[in-house]
Amino acid sequence: MTFSRSVSCDNICKEIHEALGDINFLIQDLASLSQTECRKIRETYMKIYGEDLVQILGNTAMASQESSRTCAALSTLMLNPHERDAVVAREALDEPINYKALIEIFTCRKSSHVILILQAYQARFRRQLDQDIAKIEPPNPYQKIMMALSASHKAHSTDISQHIAKCDARRLHQTGEGKSGAIDEAVVIEIFSKRSIAQLKLTFFTYNHIYGHTYTSFLKNEDFGEFEDAVRMVAKFICNPAKQYAKTLYRCLKSTTTDKGALVRVMVSRAEVDMDEIYRIFKKNYGIELKSAIYESVPAGNHRDFLVALTTKASPS
Q1: Quick one: average pLDDT of 286-309?
Q2: C-alpha triplet 229, 242, 93: angle, nearest 5°
């Protein structure tokens, strides 16, 4: 259901309230809503019934495990984007640590959004996301990079400089393939902590222009260690997030990843951002439409219906 119909927000909330045990109706009503519509529905539901629809959906008892999982996914759909990312970050920090989910947050969100995530995390969990990342044991290369990127987002640096990109690209080369042995971790961390994501993206493109190959291709060396692998993964997300998201979706559908929540996480978080581009890359790289791949790989049921409904949500033009 959408607001394009002559249906008031109050009436939609009433229908949802009366259908809380009907997962198929909830999918039909909620899955295709835009983020703005979700926010209005949540606010109106709270005003009418005095309860948070997010919590209601998350706690609603369903007849099957599949329906309960789908209802929980609908609950995350109704969250504001920064609230949702705060929840994702908290879940990512449970053992085993899901660094991929944290990479998505720190490389694919605007700095203004990351600040809201940090605030939502503190409000919801009464703790600091930065401190929770810093406390990860044992220490991990991804941990160092996430802390650096967090510092960069807090700096709110928005200016993009080709001169800085050239200087940083040369520093990365001089302290990387321009010398023998492992890359200089201190230089990489310094650059990541002081540059915006857009500036880092320009730096990596400039590196390719100057040296004739990508920085990530240089890092694809079996003799390197965990830090280089982590930098390579982060750099790939910075340079082409849609390609990495398409790869994540494909691996989820082919059951070749242990990140079981990635399918819903990606489709919900990117629905009104760059999902059109992700769809195009998915079809180009894997020879099949995402919707068709879902039909082929996900067993028939309400969870598949929910995922298919999400494919109807396009990025704004």
Answers
A1: 95
A2: 55
